[in-house]
Specification:
Layout: H1 2-16, H2 21-34, H3 46-56, H4 61-68, H5 72-85, H6 91-100
């Protein structure tokens, strides 16, 4: 009988330590930053790293081209190469994957 009463107390215990979604997301991102996934598995050139940083910053291909003194077509080719290397289809998932692989650090800097 005592074990049944103790079981009831244990049911409410997880609710007392409930974490918010934001806290869980923050912890997950910190874990990903601490444990990069096969960072050596995906190699990027120095120019691709520049493009990747600018993609993460939200810049358009036109702005990147102007900043790096390249043609828009060249920037788009680098972006396409990055998408292919990371097996992604868009910039958002590209940036997420780059973070998981340890190629992008804290984006707030």
């Amino acid at each position: 009988m005592a074990s049944v009463l103790n079981a009831g107390k244990n049911i409410t215990r997880p609710l007392q330590h409930k974490k918010s979604f934001a806290m869980l997301l923050t912890e997950t991102l910190q874990t990903l930053r601490l444990k990069p996934q096969a960072a050596a598995a995906i190699k990027v050139t120095p120019r691709e790293q520049q493009i990747l940083n600018l993609v993460a910053a939200g810049q358009t291909s036109k702005l990147m081209a102007k900043q790096l003194s390249l043609s828009v077509r060249t920037v788009e080719r680098h972006r396409a190469n990055l998408l292919k290397k990371f097996s992604q289809r868009n910039s958002v998932t590209l940036v997420q994957s780059a973070i998981r692989h340890g190629l992008l650090c804290d984006l707030a800097d």
